[in-house]
Structure formats: structure tokens, C-alpha cells
């Protein structure tokens, strides 16, 4: 498989780095491959493989993470843990803040105590949401929406780290990697929704930015390819080469059937059709001959591009087939 992937990127920029890009592509695609049964295999490289480009190091430091990496830090860095071993992860698709009314909503307050009552209602609403989440003893809570200061206070008090406003695509990858289920409402949470397959959650500073890592997952079905390099332009070119390599690796994993290249397959089909045409008489042989000549176009074009004598080379190849 390595030689197949290498042949597709052999003429590209990254070929000078040896097997590095081919190894990354094979590792990433085999990680996200899912067996559907009946000999079928699903490999979704677009959804479940994220390529994260971080300039400022050697290309040789690039690697495939058995998990997910994203450009976020915890909400309250001073109060929340930045490293958790075997975390219990809850993924949410709802805001952990008080829902404000519509634009046209008016609240008329007659007494001073009414204002305090209104604030108390907001606090109780957020406390209730946090209590429902904390019931499952999570170590890390990630939401795609907002997270209020009060919710941050309740979570950090319970020793829970939190990340807010994460992309939907990243949340889906985390769910696939750690075995969690994305929940739309905190009151619908179940024990089975908590992700426990991750080995480590850690926040690291790379360059000027903080990145969160959820790695060392057991049998992850999503991964991140971390590309390091000297500049953004270099990384963009490496990413394009990597995408080509992953597409080839995916095709091999999904349907492991191969035919020889370099015009060999087309010439074999052409010669076989010519043999068939010789056994047929009259007007019926014409379609076979026409198709045989059409198939010869590919090896002929390749010979022309190589700068060899086309007629001599074609005759030589046909002679080899006859043998």
C-alpha cells in the first residue's frame, strides 16, 4: 500500500521527504475506516480527518494524533485544569446561559425586590442546568454555544474544565474519537452519552496560540493530522499533497482492486479485442476493431510524451503481448 500511495505523490513537492507524507496518509485513513460488513468499508476523509497546520518547526515533526486537536483554550485558565488523564467528556449543542426574551419583550418592575427576583430566577435557571450536568461527574464539558460567567463559576467550583463556542465539525470529530454523544438539552443527558474512551485531555501552547488535545483514544474513528513546517506557503503545499495521498489510500481501502498502469491494461484490452475480431466474420468484426484502435490511444499518447519512437514502441509492446 505504501508503494501505491508513494507512486501518486512521487512527482510532487513532498517526494523529497521520503515516506513521511505517504505514512501520514495511510495512518490517518486506516484510523477513520469503518467496516460496514459484507466486505464493505466506509472511509470519510472529509468529515473525520482534520489537517491542522502549525508553522514554526520541522516538517519531520508532523504526525497523526489518535484523537482530536483544536484551536481553543479552557474558559477560565486560572481556575480550570488544563491536563486531565482519562477524562469523562460531555458534549453539548446548547447554550449554558440564561435565555433572553425576544426583542419585543418588556418587563415592568414595580418594586425594587422584583429586580432581585428576576436576577434570582436567572441564577436558579443556570444553577439547575449545571446541576443536571454535574450529576454525571464529568471532567470536561464542551459546548458549541455560549457559556455564562455564572455557569463557569459553578463548573470550576466542581473541578470541571469547560470549552465554549466550538465548531460543529470539531464537535462531531470529538464524539467519534472519545465515544461521546452530542446532547441538545442538559436534561436529556444519560450515562451512555458521556465519552470515556479518551486517554488524555491537555492544553498546550504552540507558538502564540493555545491548542486543546483530546488524544490517546481507544479505537478512535476520527483523527487529526498535525502538520509542522517553516512557513504557511510550505504547509499549504504539503496539505495539498497529503489530500491527494489520502484520496488514493481511501480508494484502496474502500475497494482493494488494482490494474497495472502505464497503458498496460489498455493495450491488453486492445490486443484481446483484436483477437476476438479475427474470429468473427463480416460486418460484425468492425465494432471490435474500432474499440481496439480506440484503446490504443492511451499507450500511444504515453509513448509520445516520453519522446520514444511511437510506431516502433507500439509494435514492440504488441509483440510482447503476442508472446
UniProtKB/TrEMBL annotation:
UniProt KW keywords: ATP-binding, Chaperone, Cytoplasm, Nucleotide-binding
Primary site of residence: cytoplasm
Top-level taxon of the source organism: Eukaryota
Subcellular location(s) of the protein: Cytoplasm
Pfam families: Cpn60_TCP1
MF GO annotations: ATP binding; ATP-dependent protein folding chaperone
Keyword Manganese found: no
Cellular compartments per GO CC: chaperonin-containing T-complex
Alphabetized InterPro entries for the sequence: Chaperone_TCP-1, Cpn60/GroEL/TCP-1, GroEL-like_apical_dom_sf, GROEL-like_equatorial_sf, TCP-1-like_intermed_sf
Claim: Chaperone is one of the keywords in the record: yes
Gene3D superfamilies referenced in this protein's UniProt entry, alphabetically: GroEL, GroEL-like equatorial domain, TCP-1-like chaperonin intermediate domain
Family in the record: Belongs to the TCP-1 chaperonin family.
Name the UniProt record assigns to this protein: T-complex protein 1 subunit gamma
Species this chain originates from: Linum tenue
Lineage of producing organism: Eukaryota, Viridiplantae, Streptophyta, Embryophyta, Tracheophyta
Amino acid at each position: 500500500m505504501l508503494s501505491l500511495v508513494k507512486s501518486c505523490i512521487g512527482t510532487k513537492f513532498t517526494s523529497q521527504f521520503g515516506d513521511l507524507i505517504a505514512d501520514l496518509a495511510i495512518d490517518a485513513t486506516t484510523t477513520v475506516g469503518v467496516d460496514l460488513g459484507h466486505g464493505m468499508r466506509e472511509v470519510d476523509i472529509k468529515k473525520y480527518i482534520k489537517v491542522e497546520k502549525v508553522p514554526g518547526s520541522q516538517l519531520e515533526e508532523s504526525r497523526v494524533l489518535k484523537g482530536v486537536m483544536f484551536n481553543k483554550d479552557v474558559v477560565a485558565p486560572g481556575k480550570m485544569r488544563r491536563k486531565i488523564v482519562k477524562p469523562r467528556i460531555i458534549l453539548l449543542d446548547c447554550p449554558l446561559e440564561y435565555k433572553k426574551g425576544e426583542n419585543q419583550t418588556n418587563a415592568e418592575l414595580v418594586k425594587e425586590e422584583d429586580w432581585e427576583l428576576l436576577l434570582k430566577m436567572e441564577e436558579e435557571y443556570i444553577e439547575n442546568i449545571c446541576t443536571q450536568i454535574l450529576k454525571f461527574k464529568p471532567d470536561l464539558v464542551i459546548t458549541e454555544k455560549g457559556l455564562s460567567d455564572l455557569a463557569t463559576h459553578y463548573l470550576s467550583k466542581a473541578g470541571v474544565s469547560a470549552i465554549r463556542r466550538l465548531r460543529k465539525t470539531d464537535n462531531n470529530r470529538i464524539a467519534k474519537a472519545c465515544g461521546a454523544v452530542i446532547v441538545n438539552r442538559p436534561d436529556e443527558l444519560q450515562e451512555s452519552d458521556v465519552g470515556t474512551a479518551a486517554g488524555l485531555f491537555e492544553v498546550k501552547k504552540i507558538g502564540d496560540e493555545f491548542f486543546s488535545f483530546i488524544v490517546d483514544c481507544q479505537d478512535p474513528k476520527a483523527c487529526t493530522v498535525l502538520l509542522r513546517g517553516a512557513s504557511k506557503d510550505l504547509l499549504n503545499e504539503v496539505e495539498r499533497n497529503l489530500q491527494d495521498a489520502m484520496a488514493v489510500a481511501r480508494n484502496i481501502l474502500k475497494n482493494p482492486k488494482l490494474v497495472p498502469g502505464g497503458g498496460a491494461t489498455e493495450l491488453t484490452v486492445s490486443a484481446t479485442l483484436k483477437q476476438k475480431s479475427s474470429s468473427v466474420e463480416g460486418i460484425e468484426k468492425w465494432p471490435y476493431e474500432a474499440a481496439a484502435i480506440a484503446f490504443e490511444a492511451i499507450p500511444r499518447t504515453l509513448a509520445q510524451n516520453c519522446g520514444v519512437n511511437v510506431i516502433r514502441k507500439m509494435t514492440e509492446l504488441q509483440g510482447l503481448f503476442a508472446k
